[in-house]
Amino acid sequence: MLTRRQLRVKVMQCIYAITQTKDDSLEKQEKFLRVSIENTYTLYLLMLCLLREIHSMAVHRLQMDSKKYLASDTDQFPDKEKFVQNKLLRQLVENPALDEELKRRKIRGWYLNEDYVRIIFKEILKHDLYLKYMIKRGRSFGEDKNLVIDLFREVIAPNDKLYEFFEDDKLTWVDDIPLVNTFIVKQLNAVKEDSPQKYFLPRLLKDEEDMDFARKLLSKTLLQNKALEEEIQGKTPNWDKDRIAEIDAILLKMAICELLNFSSIPERVSINEYLEIAKEYSTPKSSIFINGILDKLVKEYKAEGKLKKSGRGLL
Q1: What is the pLDDT of residue 315?
Q2: What pLDDT, on the 0 to 100 scale, is given for residue 22?
Q3: What torsion, rounded to 10 degrees, do the Cα atoms 87, 92, 96, 102 define?
Q4: Could you tell me the CA-to-CA distances from 292 to 95, 176, 218 in Å, in that order?
Q5: By Cβ atoms counted within 10 A, which residue in 110, 176, 190, 287 is the most buried?
Q6: How far apart are CA 248 and CA 278, in angstroms?
Q7: Phi then psi dihedrals of residue 108, to 5 deg
Q8: Pick from 9, 82, 6: nearest CA to 251
Q9: Of 214, 204, 175, nearest to 38 (Cα)?
Q10: Helices in 67-193 by DSSP H: which ranges?
């Protein structure tokens, strides 16, 4: 789920937190990094729970309508149960593996925040996507899947109230929301009618090597902070660290640290990664500024024999 670039962003956030709190405890920052990474998966599971809760509300609504003697909105549909019988939603609802993972992580879903589910559900009921789906006769997995994907894109992901809830709950989720939403759409697009229960429980990281990379990048950047500042100072005329954007300074230190300490990662890969992060998280001119300094440093390191790259990252 998380790529190396997203792990670099997590490390950047940890280092930025230190500059704001003045707490230079490496142990605390490593814990913050682990929690931040794990919370990305929690957000993913909460979004799946949201789909399950929407289905639960639909079931409850259908049951209430069946007890009414007067006409209800569902009477216009040829198959009132079509939405609650949606095969993709049922894959999520009738999923013991997902149940077990939620229990293991002590995630109670939207138990205390049903108002947000209700807001989404009401929007779905009046949306053209839902109405066209319910009016059309017949059922198929493809149609069911397309509806869930379209509703997620058009109703759930763009909802401002939902965004505000996540933003208030955990600060790092602000950056995780687009990532998780994109990943969920990808997962939903690829799911099949016979996909195993654990399909919806992908690995958070590709392997333990990715976690080691993030930990090592964080610790080495923090521990080598003074030396990294001196590297930047030597390549910046009229150096004044107070005038350089904080994010730029952090990204430069991380990039230099990666160039010198991660031999299996080609220098161009490292540079490109930090330029892309700068474009998203810093000023409009940051990527040009960072690229200029890193280019100078790479040439210098190569001439001095400091830049030693080897291993499968060069293949």
Answers
A1: 33
A2: 75
A3: -170
A4: 52, 29, 23
A5: 176
A6: 7
A7: -95, 15
A8: 9
A9: 204
A10: 87-93, 96-104, 114-125, 128-135, 141-151, 160-169, 173-190
Q: Distance between CA atoms of 228 and 260, rounded to whole angstroms?
A: 10
C-alpha–C-alpha distance, residues 301 and 235, integer Å:
12
Measured in degrees and rounded to the nearest 5, phi and psi for residue 50 equal: -60, -40
Mean pLDDT split into 10-residue runs, the chain, 315 residues: 96 90 83 94 97 97 78 80 98 98 94 95 97 96 98 98 92 90 97 97 96 97 94 70 81 97 95 97 92 94 88 46
Beta-carbon contacts of residue 218 (< 8 Å; ≥ 6 apart): 11, 14, 15, 29, 30, 33
Q: Please report the pLDDT score of residue 179 as a whole number.
A: 94
Instruction: Round to whole Å and give the CA distance between 309 and 198.
Output: 38
Supply 307's token pair: 């830049």
| Residue 109 near residue 46, CB atoms below 8 Å | yes
| CA distance linking residue 309 with residue 315, whole number of Å | 11
The distance of Cα 73 from the centroid of its chain, to the nearest Å, equals 37
Amino acid at 55: H
* Distance of alpha carbon 158 from alpha carbon 153, whole angstroms: 7
From 211, 205, 187, 194, select the one nearest 47 (Cα to Cα).
Answer: 187
pTM of the predicted model, to two decimals? 0.90
The Cα-based distances of 143 to 48, 88, 129, 193, 205 in angstroms read 19, 10, 11, 12, 31
Other CB atoms within 10 A of residue 254 CB: 23
The CA distance from 103 to 93, in Å, is 14
Structure tokens at 252: 């430069």
Coil/strand/helix, residue 71: coil
- Tokens representing residue 105 in the block: 């992580």
**What is the predicted pLDDT for the residue at 64?**
87
